[in-house]
Specification:
Blueprint (H helix, E strand, L loop, with lengths): L1 E3 L5 H18 L21 H4 L4 H13 L4 E5 L6 H9 L5 E3 L4 H7 L7 E6 L6 H16 L8 E6 L3 H8 L3 E5 L12 H9 L4 H12 L8 H11 L4 E5 L8 H13 L7 E5 L9 E4 L7 E4 L2 H19 L9 H16 L10 E2 L3 E4 L7 H4 L6 E7 L10 H10 L3 E5 L7 H7 L4 E8 L14 H18 L4 E6 L2 H13 L2
Parallel strand pairs: 2-3, 2-4, 4-5, 5-6, 7-8, 7-9, 9-10, 13-14, 13-15, 15-16
Antiparallel strand pairs: 1-10, 11-12, 12-16
Pathway: Carbohydrate degradation; glycolysis; D-glyceraldehyde 3-phosphate and glycerone phosphate from D-glucose: step 2/4
Catalytic activity: alpha-D-glucose 6-phosphate = beta-D-fructose 6-phosphate
Family: Belongs to the GPI family.
Length: about 500
């Protein structure tokens, strides 16, 4: 591993001295580092994963052999947040095929169904076993397999903690179940069963990753520990914004994985470091810029994927010590979930009242507590950053991502982009728990297709809209600037946004 960064100043030197004994305590899993009564007491086994995950190798070898013997060569992973981001990075890095369903958009789910479902192995990853998105995916695929005359137990693999309702029900159904270490939190689970099961089924030799992670782990308490040096830099060199870029990197998707790790871990008590994923080093507007291949960044961190996974977990834990927050809880993630469930209950009871737009034309409808006729009017609001939250089909509406760079270049402020509902399991925490200085743009659309969720009176279209509205209510409670733009004609609306922004 190689680190390229600025020279140390006196302030950072003092932080380095403070962190060195903390790193030694972290290595022996001292849960009092972040204070008393934190979730650290049952969330520190990620430190051992480079070694302990080797115990999974016989199970993974057997699972892969079974999959090959059945000629199940189309691997689909249904999971949110930490259950899917790491496997995506792993398989992309090693050039393996993995279809990830981390959405409730019905059009995207339908497009993700393997053409030959008899050749598919469906991995369901849920730490709690109660994630509404993942359980809905499971219900859908169970029904789909049965309708195609297939036995779900010959196509479904479950990854969850021991003793969850999902663990128990899956074993009763005869599914193949791999239990993850229950003392590892979701966003620290890259080297656990959540990251390794789908990767192994896709054909990745995971032992290489574990070797690299274990080798680096031995350096992380040393005098020249890269984890200590980078944590000190993230603490002293920026109060909020960290820009991350995969520009010229051989580890595609690493920035998205780090974004979730840092945002959800640090964004509490109106503290935190806000990760902004950018395409090019020149796109950085404020704060630090970090890359993973040589380029014009403030900091370059070069290393293998196994090294990067364990390094950034250590960095995040040490940074949370410095800003005095518990890295292992996510107190504000549940808010959007609770409001989503309330909206779904009203849909079940047929008492749901559709919001009334404050502005509407043939292409868009705008929902806001204030009067805005277009996106550019909203961008005049005072804020430190803007968050775009797109509850869309990223396969066919990916052009919406261009708004991030356009808005940032016009307002000269950091702009984040997240696909909904995926971001609710990552940056959704820092939006509500971090510094309350953002402006928020929700973008929704009406799916072209309807997709039922077996066993429920609401469908996937209802679910994704309820998730958007539920998160919007959580943001409104904090009196944060929020606008929802509903696309009636996605292509024309996005073209209109681009035109408006270019003349803004």
């Amino acid at each position: 591993m190689k680190i390229y960064g600025p020279a140390l100043d006196k302030n950072r030197l003092s932080i380095l001295e403070e962190l060195r004994p903390i790193a030694k305590r972290l290595a022996i899993k001292d849960a009092t580092i972040w204070g008393a009564n934190t979730d650290a007491a049952f969330r520190l086994n990620w430190i051992d994963l480079p070694k302990s995950s080797r115990e999974l190798l016989p199970q993974l070898d057997a699972l892969s052999a079974w999959s090959r013997s059945k000629k199940l060569d189309q691997v689909v992973l249904c999971g949110m947040g930490g259950s899917s981001l790491a496997p995506g990075v792993i398989t992309s890095t090693y050039n393996k095929q993995l279809t990830i369903i981390d959405t409730t958009n019905p059009d995207q789910i339908i497009a993700s169904i393997p053409k030959n479902i008899s050749k598919a192995v469906i991995v369901i990853g849920s730490k709690s076993g109660a994630t509404i998105e993942t359980n809905s995916h499971l219900n859908f695929f169970e029904d789909l397999l049965k309708r195609n005359g297939l036995d779900p137990s010959e196509h479904i693999v479950i990854v969850t903690d021991s003793g969850t309702s999902l663990d128990q029900s899956s074993r009763e159904k005869g599914y193949r179940v791999i239990n993850a270490d229950e003392n590892v939190g979701g966003r620290f689970s890259a080297l656990s069963a959540f990251g390794l099961v789908p990767a192994a089924l896709a054909g990745v030799d995971i032992s290489i990753m574990l070797d690299d992670a274990e080798s680096l782990s031995r350096r992380l308490t040393a005098e020249d520990s890269p984890a200590i040096a980078i944590a000190a830099m993230l603490y002293t060199s920026t109060d909020q914004v960290i820009n991350l870029s995969d520009y010229q990197s051989t580890l595609p998707g690493l920035s998205d994985w780090i974004e979730q790790l840092i945002a959800e871990s640090t964004g509490k008590n109106q503290q935190g470091r806000l990760p902004v994923v950018i395409d090019h080093p020149e796109d950085a507007i404020a704060g630090l810029s970090i890359g993973f291949a040589k380029g014009d960044f403030d900091l370059v961190v070069e290393g293998t994927l196994g090294e990067q996974f364990i390094l950034w977990e250590w960095i995040t834990a040490l940074l949370c010590y410095l800003i005095k927050v518990d890295p292992f809880n996510q107190p504000n993630v549940s808010e959007a979930k609770e409001r989503t469930e309330s909206i779904l209950s009203s849909i079940r009871d047929k008492t749901f009242v559709k919001p009334t737009p404050s502005y509407e034309d043939d292409e868009i409808a705008i929902y806001s507590d204030e009067s805005f006729n277009n996106l550019t009017e909203f961008l005049n609001r005072d804020c430190q950053y803007v968050a775009i939250m797109a509850y869309l089909n990223k396969d066919t509406e990916d052009q919406i991502r261009s708004l991030r760079g356009l808005i940032a270049s016009k307002i000269k402020k950091p702009v984040t982009f997240g696909w909904g509902p995926r971001f609710l399991h990552s940056t959704g925490q820092i939006h509500k728990g971090g510094q309350l200085n953002g402006s928020f743009i929700q973008i929704t659309s009406t799916p072209q297709q309807t997709l039922a969720i077996p066993g429920h009176t609401f469908d996937f279209g209802d679910l994704i809209m309820a998730q958007a509205l539920g998160d919007g209510l959580a943001l409104k409670q904090r009196k944060l600037p929020l606008i929802r733009i509903h696309l009636k004609d996605s292509k024309k609306a996005i073209e209109r946004f681009v035109k408006d922004l270019k003349s803004f």
